[in-house]
Structures are given as structure tokens and as C-alpha cells.
Specification:
By secondary structure, this protein is of the alpha+beta class. It has one domain: 2-Layer Sandwich (Beta Polymerase, domain 2). It has 2 helices and 5 strands, in the order H-E-E-H-E-E-E. The protein has a 5-stranded mixed beta sheet, with helices on one face. It is elongated. The termini are far apart.
């Protein structure tokens, strides 16, 4: 039998964290085992989501959570990663934000959905030789 871990604590936190992060324009997903810490990925889901630090500030002001380790670290593929500690100090959340697309002028349809995929244009991949 494996030793007990904090996975139940992390799972209990997820619904409220996901709701809060969604209000700031991000979808939240869990990855990893939840055995040692809780790895979360926040993915921009609306044309103009809030800045990641704004989201982290909302988390730390609404939950018994503290930001630790100073400024966020930039990791592979431009992910911005914050480390958060739960009040009793043995549980940690690694919260990654995937980069936001470059905002372009966007005409919204009546239902609030972009009319064209050109709202967030990326350059076409360059051909490799």
C-alpha cells in the first residue's frame, strides 16, 4: 500500500479554483499525479483574459494560499509558472499559464463568438528545406 498523500485536498480545491480562474478568462486543467503537489494549467479561453498576476492575486486573496518563490518563472514554450503554498505549508500548487495570442481587431457575432479565425492571427509556419 502506498503512503497517504494530499490528493484529496487538491481535488477538493479544484472546483472553486476553476470557477475563480474562469472568471478571469482562463480554462483550468489538472495534470500530474497530485501525489506531491498539484500541477495546474491555465489556458486563455476568451479574447482578452486578465494578466496571470491578476489571477494569482485573486487566488491568494480568496483562499488560504500564498505565492512563494518570488516572481513567476518562465518555462518551456513560454509558460509562466507560479508556485503557491496552501496555508498549512506542506501542499503546493504549480500554476502554469500558457501564453496569450496576440490580440487583433475582432468582430463579434451576436452570440459573442468571433466571426472569423482572423481574430488571433499567427504567421504561417515557414517552410523548412
Amino acid at each position: 500500500m502506498k503512503p497517504a498523500n494530499y490528493a484529496p485536498v487538491y481535488c477538493a480545491l479544484y472546483p472553486e479554483l476553476a470557477d475563480l480562474v474562469r472568471k478571469h478568462g482562463y480554462a483550468l486543467a489538472i495534470h500530474g499525479t497530485l501525489g506531491r503537489d498539484m500541477d495546474l494549467i491555465a489556458v486563455p479561453w476568451v479574447p482578452l483574459p486578465d494578466e496571470p498576476q491578476t489571477v494569482v492575486d485573486a487566488i491568494t486573496s480568496n483562499f488560504a494560499v500564498k505565492e512563494v518563490g518570488g516572481p513567476a518563472e518562465i518555462r518551456e514554450h513560454g509558460r509562466l509558472v507560479y508556485t503557491l503554498s496552501l496555508a498549512f505549508g506542506e501542499c503546493f500548487i504549480d500554476l502554469s499559464f500558457t501564453p496569450k495570442a496576440e490580440a487583433q481587431t475582432c468582430d463579434l457575432a451576436e452570440d459573442g463568438v468571433c466571426e472569423a479565425l482572423e481574430c488571433f492571427k499567427d504567421e504561417q509556419p515557414k517552410e523548412t528545406k
